[in-house]
Amino acid sequence: MSRTQQAIQEFENTIQEKMRAFEAFLSIPSVSSDPAKKASMLDAANYLKTYFEGIGMDAAAVYPTDLHPVVFAEKRACKPDAKTVLIYGHYDVQPPDPLDAWTTPAFEPNVRGDYLYARGASDMKGQIVSVIFALESVLKTGDLPVNVKFILEGEEEIGSPHFESFVRDNADLLECDIILNPDAGMIDKDHPTIVNGLRGLVYFEVRVDGPKADLHSGLFGGNIANPANELAKIIAQLHNPDGSVAIPGFYDRVRVMSDEERREIARIPSSEEEFLAVTGSPALYGEQGYTILERQGVRPTLDVNGLYSGYIGEGSKTIIPAYAFAKISCRLVPYQQYAEIYDLAEKYIRSLVPPTVKVSFIKHSGGPYYFADDAPGLENLVQAFKDTWQKDVIFKREGGSIPVATVMQEILGVKSILTGVSLPDDAIHSPNEHLHLPTWHKGVQAYIRFLTSFDA
Ligand code: BES
Ligand code: ZN
Predict the structure, then answer these.
(1) What is the mean pLDDT of residues 208-214?
(2) 426 lines ligand 1 (CB under 6 A)
């Protein structure tokens, strides 16, 4: 049996105990945005450290930051001149809300058929353990031909506020030749996928204040502006009838796609039916003149992520709300600058606000678009994927955002390989998030092949 086959066999032989370890990790409610979960964040970090120690890493440590800690671990290769792969991951997860939409509780992992249900199963605790388990099986069955380092942060889902300073302060520790970031996914379970571009992000809140308190709508309605009405009018002016974003200057830096680029994208299998099935929406929507994949990967968007005003409890309450607010984000494409887009958005929204209400803004996270077409180590992973799925790898521009890739490129000088075994219908950031276990198994096999590929 080949060295690689031995490692794959070791993984298969120990799958029961690995699933138990995976489920224990998933049971920790590591919600980075929830101040009440601070202790769970530390639990999750320590869980990883302990697991790393158990598989014989040379170093494993939890580094505090001003908010949630970073886990670092390292295993040196058997030979002195070996390359170094740095694996990035985030052990934090999105809030599980709405809780009553889950069939089984978010932090009580549950296997139903081929799927493992839990918050973080797909994004991205499952992806973290897929690489750790791959390394574990390689270590148990022979020599490690490549230095392996892990950097696992706890703040990705809140925009990685302390990641940049951590990487800057620990650049020597993190020195590497290759970065593998398995925080993305596949187009479907039959096509291994490597992401060659990501969208950027800018996220902010708009608050409209009217009266000093909620008012009786009969006594005051008609004389006092209603912040909910006014915010709705503002939001309605953020898009043009053709679906494009109405903020002046929004598209100034966006390049027109070349015919070749459009042909590339059109080669990727995708269908309207699939999109509708995954989302459950009654019909597709989008900027006119673009295909689904173009809208997802290459066109910028603006979306309201949350909207709140007035009385939303049982029954009715006749009021003019004192305030209304909306959480808004834009996905950005090359070469839009997130700070500039924020300024344009704020300026435009201010211009829409009537004197009858007051507006204020809160700026949340931002991050740039990313190109990853020529990351070092790409050929090794492409071959590992091909050998595992017996299919050619699909290269895709993805709609999500992974701002840490830019941070690491700027500080460590290495581009990230962006990939993963998450599937479009895994319900990440949604209730009933799940992981397709057969695909995840293949992922572990592929990462074993990747790690052993540095043998030559
Ligand atoms: N894993 C996702 C990003 C992702 C998902 C990329 C699928 C490609 C395919 C990640 O955890 C995430 O959700 N990131 C945030 C970033 C933001 C908070 C800065 C996002 O994209 O909303
Ligand atoms: Zn993620």
Answers:
(1) 98
(2) no
